[in-house]
Specification:
Radius of gyration: 16 Å
Distance between the termini: 29 Å
Largest sheet: 6 strands, antiparallel
Structural class: mainly beta
Length: 177
C-alpha cells in the first residue's frame, strides 16, 4: 500500500507572538525556508525564502509578515507547495529567527510564542518554543524526499544562537544522529 501514498504536498507553517509591552521595542520573528539539492543536502542552500523573497518557481512564499506581533491569529505564515517543487530538490528546512535590531533577544524574551505546522486541516506539529528558550533562532520543520520521491515531514525544534544572516548559513548543516 505504500506505493499509493502521495506524501506531503502542500504545507502551511505559522508563527504567532504577542506584541512587546508598551514602551519596549517591537519583537519581530521571521520564517525562513532553505532548499537543498540531492547532491548537497546539508551544505549550501540552493536558495532561501524569507520576508524579502519567494522561491524562483513560486512554490514557497510568505503569506503574512508581521514586524511586531500585532493583530489577531497567526502573525507570520509561509506556504510550501512541496508537490510542485522540482525533483532536483531533496530537502527543505524551515526556521524561525528573532530579528536582533533592538539588542540580543532569545525566545524567553518573546511573549507567548507559538508554532503550528499543518497540511490542509491536519496539524502536523505545534510548539511554544519552551524547549529552546535561550535560542535566537530555530529550525522548526524538515521535509525530505523518500526513496519514492514523496515528501516526508520530520518534526523537531533545534535551537541556534546566531544572528539572522549566520542562521541561514548554518541551519542546514549535518545534525548529529
Amino acid at each position: 500500500m505504500s506505493g499509493l501514498s502521495k506524501g506531503i504536498r502542500k504545507v502551511e507553517v505559522a508563527l504567532r507572538w504577542d506584541p512587546s509591552p508598551s514602551g519596549q521595542p517591537p519583537t519581530d520573528l521571521d520564517l525562513v525556508a532553505a532548499t537543498y539539492t540531492a547532491g548537497d543536502m546539508h551544505g549550501t542552500p540552493a536558495y532561501v525564502v524569507h520576508f524579502d523573497s519567494r522561491s524562483p518557481d513560486g512554490t514557497i512564499y510568505l503569506n503574512r509578515d508581521s514586524t511586531d506581533g500585532q493583530g489577531f491569529g497567526w502573525d507570520e505564515v509561509m506556504t510550501l507547495e512541496l508537490g510542485r517543487l522540482d525533483g532536483r530538490y531533496a530537502r527543505v528546512l524551515v526556521g524561525a529567527v528573532i530579528q536582533q535590531r533592538n539588542g540580543h533577544r532569545t525566545f524567553v524574551d518573546v511573549l507567548n510564542p507559538g508554532l503550528r505546522i499543518r497540511e490542509g486541516y491536519s496539524v502536523l506539529a505545534q510548539d511554544d518554543f519552551g524547549g529552546i528558550l535561550g535560542a535566537t533562532a530555530a529550525t522548526v520543520a524538515e521535509f525530505v524526499r523518500d526513496e519514492d520521491g514523496n515528501w516526508v515531514f520530520r518534526p523537531g525544534l533545534k535551537g541556534f544562537d546566531d544572528d539572522p544572516a549566520d542562521f541561514v548559513r548554518t541551519m542546514g548543516g549535518a545534525h548529529p544522529s
